[in-house]
Write a structure and sequence with these properties.
3 helices; elongated; 56 residues
């Protein structure tokens, strides 16, 4: 994908929103940023959980 498109489509691919919401303006760039931040937090929490599980 071209630069920036992966950031825009990441919440769609993760199932957090529909592609149409990007096209029709239902979601703002701030909304997309919030969704991407939530995905980052989720990924970090999963990484930490996996690391802790591996330690045991």
């Amino acid at each position: 994908m071209a630069s920036g498109e992966d950031w825009l489509f990441r919440p769609v691919i993760a199932g957090l929103c529909r592609f149409e919401s990007l096209n029709d303006g239902t979601l703002s760039l701030a909304d997309i940023a919030d969704l991407n931040e939530a995905l980052d937090v989720h990924a970090e929490n999963e990484r930490r959980l996996a690391a802790k599980t591996k330690e045991k």
